[in-house]
From TrEMBL:
Gene3D superfamilies according to UniProt: dinb family like domain (1.20.120.450)
Pfam families: DUF1569 (PF07606)
Organism: Oceanobacillus sojae
Protein name per UniProt: DUF1569 domain-containing protein
Length: 149
C-alpha cells in the first residue's frame, strides 16, 4: 500500500494534482474540481491536527470495525459518504485550492509521522501515523481518479 510519507508517493500525488485543470470533470459525485481540492485540503487539516470534527454516534458504534477500509489496498467506493464538516458545496477558486492542497501535502509529509494528530477520526476513530499515511494517500488517490488523473 502506498503511503504519503514516502517521498516518491507524495511526488506522484503532486504531479497528478498538477494534471488537473478548471475544466476537469468528475466521473462521479457532486463536487466540481475546485470543491474536491478544498475537500481534500480540509481532510488534510484533520490529519494534521488543525481541525477536530466531532464523532457521531454511528462512528462510535461501528467505526472501529470499518476503519481498515481507510488504509487497506482496496479502492474507496464511489460516492462514499464523508464527514459533513468537510463536504464542500460553496464555489471555490481552482488555482487557490490547488496550491493550498499541495502545500498541505508537502507540510504533512515533511512533518512526518510524529506530527500526525492523535485526535480520533470523526467516523473511524484513532489511527496510527502509519494508518494516517496510507489513508491520506488512498483518499487523495480516490479523488484524483474521480477527476481522471
Amino acid at each position: 500500500m502506498k503511503n504519503i510519507f514516502n517521498p516518491l508517493h507524495m511526488e506522484e500525488i503532486l504531479e497528478r494534482i498538477d494534471e488537473l485543470s478548471p475544466e476537469s470533470r468528475g466521473q462521479w459525485g457532486k463536487m466540481d474540481v475546485a470543491q474536491m481540492l478544498a475537500h481534500c485540503s480540509a481532510f488534510q487539516d484533520i490529519a494534521m491536527g488543525d481541525s477536530f470534527p466531532k464523532r457521531g454516534w454511528l462512528g462510535i458504534v461501528i467505526g472501529r470495525f470499518a476503519k481498515p477500509i481507510f488504509y487497506n489496498d482496496k479502492p474507496v467506493a464511489q460516492n462514499m459518504s464523508t464527514i459533513p464538516t468537510i463536504l464542500i458545496t460553496e464555489e471555490k477558486e481552482f488555482e487557490t485550492e490547488r496550491e493550498k492542497l499541495k502545500q498541505k501535502i508537502i507540510a504533512f509529509q515533511k512533518n512526518g509521522p510524529e506530527k500526525c494528530t492523535t485526535h480520533p477520526h470523526a467516523f473511524f476513530g484513532k489511527f496510527t501515523p502509519e494508518q494516517w499515511g496510507k489513508g491520506i494517500y488512498k483518499h487523495l488517490d480516490h479523488h484524483l481518479k474521480q477527476f481522471g488523473v
